[in-house]
Every structure is written in C-alpha cells, then in structure tokens.
Design goal:
heterodimer, A: about 375 residues, alpha+beta, 10 strands, elongated, B: about 220 residues, alpha/beta, 6-stranded mixed sheet, 4-stranded antiparallel sheet, globular
Chain lengths: ~375, ~220
C-alpha cells in the first residue's frame, strides 16, 4: 500500500504543480500590468522572461531607447529595469542588485508584502527576505556604502516569496545606474500600452524605428516559460507513470501472494457456498480497497507535504511564479484516486482469476 | 436422501495413481447421525467431499434428494451446496479479522440472504457462544472456534451437515460438547455425517460406517439409539 501511496502522492503533486504553475504564471504576468518587455536584441525569450525575476543579462539597452519609447504613441508607462551582479569587496561577496523605479514597484511586484516602507530616497533600498535573514538586517540598518561613501539604508524588507526575488537587493534605478557607472543603462524596459489591441502595431513600429532591441510580449513570455517548464513536467510525469506501473505490479504481486497464502480460506468459502464469481469479486474488491486506501493516503501525504515539495521545486526550477504552487484541488484528488482505482482493478484481475480457479478440495487439504 | 452408487475416485499424486475410493455404495436417510471411521488414507475425506458436491467422482453416481449431482453444471452445484449442505472442518477455517458474528454470517454473503442479528444470535445461543459474538477467533478456545464453525455451517439452514473430524483438534471435554451439539441437531431433523478417529464418539453415533482401502468395510447401527 505504501508503494501506491507514494506513486499517487507524486502523481497528485505533479498534476497540482502543473496546474498551480500555469495559474500562478498567468496571474503573475497579468498582475504586473506590463504588456511587453524591451530587451537587447539577441536575447532569448526565455531569458527575457526571467528578467522579471532577476536574470542577469550581460548586455544593456542603448540609452536612447527610453527616449524612443517616451515619444512613441500609445504607451502609458515605460519603466527601466537594471539587473546586475555587484562585487562587494568589503564583505567578500557578490550582491545581486535589481534597479527599478520605486514608484512603479507595486505594478511590477504586486504580490509583495513589505516590512517597513518602499524607498523614497536615492540612498534607500529594499532587501529580499533571504538577504536580510542571512545578514541579520532590519529596516533602518545600513546595508553597505557606495564607492563614494554614501550609506545605503534599508527602507524595507520584502516578505518571503519563495522565489528568486528573495535573493535580491532592490535599489532605485538611478542609484543602481550610478553604482554600476552606467547612467541610463537598463537590462530591460517594461512597457504598458494604452490600448492592448494596438500592441502589435506599436511593437512593429518600435522594432522598425529603434535599432538593437527585441520586443517580447507577455504572451510570448508566458509561452516561453511554459515551454521551459513543459519538458521538466513531461519527464516527471513519465517517471510518475512508471512508478504507478511499478506499484501496480507490486499490488498484483501482493494480492497474488495473499491469494496463495489464503487458499485454504478461499477453499472454505467455496465449500460454504461461494461461487467462482464470488471469489473473483472478493479479490477484486480487496484490490480496489487497497488501491483506494493507498491513493487517499498518498494524497494526504502530498497535501501535508506540499510545502516541502514546493521548496524543492523552487530550488531546482529556473523560474517559478510566486504564491502557492501546490494546493489541494478536490477534482484533481478525485481524478488521481479514480486513476489508481482503475490501475488497481487491472492489477487485481489476474490474482482474482487465479483465486476463482482454486480447487476447493485441494485448497482445503492444504 | 443421499445415495452413492459405485463411487470410484482416482487421482494422481506425483507419479503415483491413487485409487481413493473403489466402488462405494451408501445410502443416508434424513435425520441420520452417521460417523465415518477408518484409518488414515482410507478415503474418508474424499468420500465426504463427494457427498458435499465439492468433488466429482471418477465413476459412479451421487444423488441428493433424487437429484444426480454428477449431471449438474458448476453454478447448479454451487447452489445445491449453498442451499442444502453445511461444512465443518477440523481446522475450523475461521477468518481471523472477522468477529464471531461475522464469521457465522459469512455464508449469507454468498447466498444473498439477510444476516439478521436475531438469526445469528439464535445460532450462537444454540452452540453456547452468545457471549462471544464480538470476539475475534484469536480470543476463542479451540472448542469455541469449532462451535463458531458449526454455527457458520448451519446459517444457511442446510438439510445436511458434513463434518470432517470436527473434534480432531479438541480435548475430551470440548469433543463431548461438539458431539452433543451434532447429536442434538440430528434429533432436530438435520442429517449429520461426521468423520472421526475418536472410536468412543463413533460408538455413540446412531450409525457407524467404517471405510478401509476405499471401500465400505462395515456399516453398523447402534441398537439402543
């Protein structure tokens, strides 16, 4: 039964994750309020997509791009994002910095809970949860000093997101540009348009006018990330199905052993009035009960252990949306149990047939 | 009621061809209490299995209430066994996970008759187990287990009860109790056929059939029964 429980638990987790991942991704991208990203040309869609979660691209946009965007018709908002790795020789580590216009932060990161406040001054910063916890810092503390001796004061700490966001230091974009000595540089520019129906027109126009850029729409971002995750999901689903098959063989073996061990009992049942069909039905029912019990146990384990599974997935996946990825879905649970019940029924057919063929006289003689 | 004509039963045991029964003729009337005795390997159990339609003879004819069981298809044989015959075994064969109540009620599961508490309690009372209905077999003595098996054999209200060495695993006191139950059932109208090695009990039965080398060696009646 433990084998069934394990395989159903993993099956339920993978299916729940699949659903949670797609829903989380759609929700996250929709909630950013951005319609497309402008990135340096030659940047793969996948990487462009990851900029929202802090991917570092060793290329910067031309400074003139912002001007073109501001001049273009139909654009409501264009906000630069600067992501970089910054060596910190004093503390012998590399800080991951994320420069962003703090006024539009709530639009880009709508799900964040911030302890303290959003930076309003150039020398104020936000810390990701992990960074703050690792350094033991709290709002009001000085994080570090810039090369010119300006202290960077922590205005707030981002609550745990469970994503890559936890590992970043968030600065006003101008401060990030100064530190990197790249005024006006940006890794990407997030753009919101007035009328989304005109988006293709706007992106075509921009691509023609502005050299050295690539435009990635949120739809493409979503597809890219989905494709990125799809192969991993397909592989894990294949492994789960193999595990289910192995557990089905295990069930068949266990029931077969039980039939042989209980052949005298089966012989007695035949003697007191059970037909071959009755014996067949009893064994099949036992297999089904075993499978369903194992399935329910597996779903319970997967539900209670979802936080652990989620933490593991987040540690190995390159991009994972914020929020709960694995949550209990009754329909999915029911589907998983019905699936394992069907597998159990198939696995029980052979032992049930064997049991129904037992000769009662030989069985009773032992 | 039960009529066996020239019953032969042969089977193979490895390379050996065993002639378990070599032409048994036997008639058993309703309400009889018959003890079948004989040495080990004489063919007693094979005879009981053929009487109970669990096994088919190689040659010969078995009739129960004038119905030739040899001509019946498997489903009809199951029905005959279920409706007319009850079995009791030396090793009891109670299901360990079930209570006394459920063990007694088990055959009703196959006959699709309702397992009413009144019926089960009445049977339990008849065998002196009314206080043990909620117990599982591991909590019972050998005698109690056999009495549970007897109640199970009676739950479908059969006309014939076949008992294969029902006292074989019991001490003298419990053997006596079991025999008295069987004798009482016979007095109430049930046909009881019991295999036993216990000569003292066999001598108390109304009729004793002695089997030797696959044949009825002697068939005697108790004079003052």
């Amino acid at each position: 039964m433990l084998g069934i429980a394990a395989s159903v638990g993993v099956l339920f987790s993978v299916l729940s994750f699949n659903r949670g991942f797609n829903e989380g991704l759609a929700q996250e991208l929709e909630s950013t309020g951005l319609h497309f990203m402008v990135v340096p040309s030659g940047c793969a869609h996948e990487v462009a997509a990851l900029v929202l979660h802090g991917a570092v691209i060793p290329k910067f946009l031309d400074t003139g791009v912002m001007q073109h965007l501001q001049e273009a018709n139909g654009i409501t908002m264009a906000t630069p994002i600067l992501v970089a790795q910054l060596p910190n020789p004093k503390k012998e580590r590399i800080d991951l910095i994320y420069g962003v216009d703090m006024e539009v932060l709530s639009a880009i990161k709508p799900g964040w809970q911030i302890e303290g406040k959003v930076p309003t001054q150039g020398n104020e910063i936000l810390l990701g949860h992990e960074v703050a916890e690792h350094e033991g810092l709290k709002p009001g503390d000085v994080f570090t000093e810039t090369a010119d001796g300006t202290p960077l004061v922590i205005a707030g700490i981002v609550g745990l997101t469970g994503s890559q966001d936890d590992a970043f230091v968030y600065l006003p974009i101008q401060t990030a540009q100064q530190i990197l000595e790249r005024p006006d540089a940006a890794t990407a520019i997030g753009v919101k348009v007035t009328n989304p129906e005109r988006m293709n027109e706007i992106t075509d126009e921009l691509s023609a006018v502005v050299p050295g850029i690539q435009i990635v729409t949120m739809g493409q971002v979503m597809n890219s990330i989905s494709n990125l995750a799809a192969s991993a999901r397909a592989l894990s689903l294949a492994i789960v199905l193999i595990a289910v098959l192995i557990s089905a063989v295990g069930v068949m073996n266990s029931i077969l052993m039980s039939v042989f061990e209980r052949s005298q009992e089966i012989g007695m049942m035949r003697a007191v009035g059970a037909s071959r069909r009755d014996v067949f039905r009893i064994i099949l029912e036992e297999t089904t009960i075993l499978s369903v019990a194992g399935g329910l146990f597996g779903i319970a384990i997967a539900t209670f252990g979802s936080k652990l599974i989620e933490a593991f997935v987040r540690s190995v996946m390159p991009f994972v949306p914020s929020g709960n990825l694995i949550s209990f879905d009754p329909l999915l649970a029911l589907g998983s149990v019905l699936f394992i019940m069907a597998i159990g029924l198939c696995a029980g057919l052979y032992p049930a047939r064997k049991a129904s063929k037992i000769n009662p006289v030989e069985a009773i003689k032992g | 009621m039960i009529e066996l004509k020239k019953i032969e039963k042969n089977y193979r045991r490895g390379a050996e061809n065993v002639r378990a029964l070599r032409g048994v003729d036997l008639m058993i009337d309703k309400k009889e209490l018959v003890a079948i005795t004989g040495p080990s390997g004489a063919g007693k159990t094979t005879l009981l299995h053929i009487l109970g339609c669990l096994d088919q003879p190689t040659n010969g004819e078995v009739s129960i209430d004038s119905v030739n069981a040899g001509n019946l298809p498997e489903p009809e044989l199951v029905k005959l066994r279920r409706d007319k015959i009850g079995f009791v075994f030396q090793q009891f064969y109670l299901i360990p996970g079930l209570s006394v109540f459920d063990n007694i009620a088990l055959p009703l599961l196959f006959s699709k008759k309702p397992a009413t508490p009144e019926k089960i309690k009445k049977l339990a009372e008849m065998v002196g187990l009314q206080h043990r209905l909620d117990h599982v077999p591991t909590q019972l003595s050998g005698g109690e287990m056999q009495r549970t098996a007897i109640a199970r054999g009676l739950v479908n209200e059969p006309e014939i009860l076949l008992a294969d060495e029902p006292t074989g695993n019991l001490d003298t006191e419990n053997s006596d109790k079991i025999f008295e139950i069987l004798r009482s059932l016979s007095s109430d109208g049930l046909t009881v056929v019991m295999i036993t090695h216990n000569q003292e009990l066999a001598a108390r039965a109304k009729r004793t059939v002695h089997i030797k080398d696959g044949l009825v060696h002697s068939d005697s009646y108790l004079v003052n029964a």
